[in-house]
Amino acid sequence: MTTSKSSNKTPDREGNGSRVIPMDENTQREFIKNMNNIIQEGLVKLSQLKYSEEKQE
Hints:
Layout: E1 9-11, E2 18-20, H1 25-56
Antiparallel strand pairs: 1-2
Region (Disordered): 1-24
């Protein structure tokens, strides 16, 4: 079965696009934790970049 880039979507049997497979509570918590980590890492990198740009001025 092929999946789209979003790993929780799969084409339905009739080929009518994709359907979302609901996550159980633990999977949802893990997903949110991972997203928060990614966002936090991005904010840290952004603040480091801004700080290095301010130092150069």
